[in-house]
Amino acid sequence: MTQQAYETAITSIEDLELRLRRLEYYLSGSDDPRPSLETAVSKGRDHTVTARLSTLEQRAYPTLFHPSHSDLDTIPSNLSSEEILAIVAAHGPLYHQTASQLTSIHDLAIPSSSLSTSLISLQPRISKLQSLQKAQAKEMAALRARSAKAVQRWYELGVLGQGECWAEWEGRMEECEKKVRRAVGDRQRDMEEREKYMT
Questions:
Q1: Rounded to an integer, what distance in angstroms lies between the CA atom of residue 27 and that of residue 21?
Q2: How many CA atoms lie within 13 A of 150 on its CB side?
Q3: Higher confidence at residue 115 or residue 33?
Q4: Alpha carbons 191 and 193: distance in angstroms, whole number
Q5: What pTM did the predictor assign?
Q6: DSSP codes joined into one string, 85-136
């Protein structure tokens, strides 16, 4: 094995180790110190990827592949062989479906680490865009407040002020009409009195 192939293998194993540690953290929330590949190799077979996956599986789902005795005790023992066979036959498609799903999971390739690297490289741009978005949201809030004040001022001066002005003009017109009616009435009375005296 050449040096380059050895380094590539070590890098791949370290990437797998990192993913395994992330998986352990997500499932169990363990904050244990994360051993490097060299310390895992020096500790022996109990710290290999397979052993740690097995431990993780037992910690997260202890009864998945090893049911407890209480589960076995719940199986009714008074069923005949024909009834048990009928139950198994009825659930036969589920076994095939589960097997095909497990096979498809086994066939899935491990995602390339380049995707994570590209996402990490985008983090500065994402942070800049988030700060820009916050600044724009603050500016929009200020513009909304200014718009609300402008609308309120227009309503107070334009609508309410104009209404008050019209009310004042209408009051003045009514006063003028009253004065004109009084003057016309007084004039008609004067003319009627003069006509009476003349006759």
A1: 10
A2: 6
A3: 115
A4: 5
A5: 0.32
A6: HHHHHHTHHHHHHHHHHHHHHHHPPPPPHHHHHHHHHTHHHHHHHHHHHHHH
Distance CA 151, CA 157 (A): 10
pLDDT of residue 145: 93
> CA 5, CA 12: separation in Å to the nearest integer?
10
Q: How far apart are CA 163 and CA 63, in angstroms?
A: 80
Quote the tokens at residue 55. Answer: 């431990």
DSSP secondary structure string, 156-188?
IIIIIHHHHHHHHHHHHHHHHHHHHHHHHHHHH
Range ranked top by mean pLDDT from 12-26, 65-79, 95-109, 181-195: 181-195
- Two tokens at 48? 């290999």
Give me the pLDDT at residue 59, please.
Answer: 67
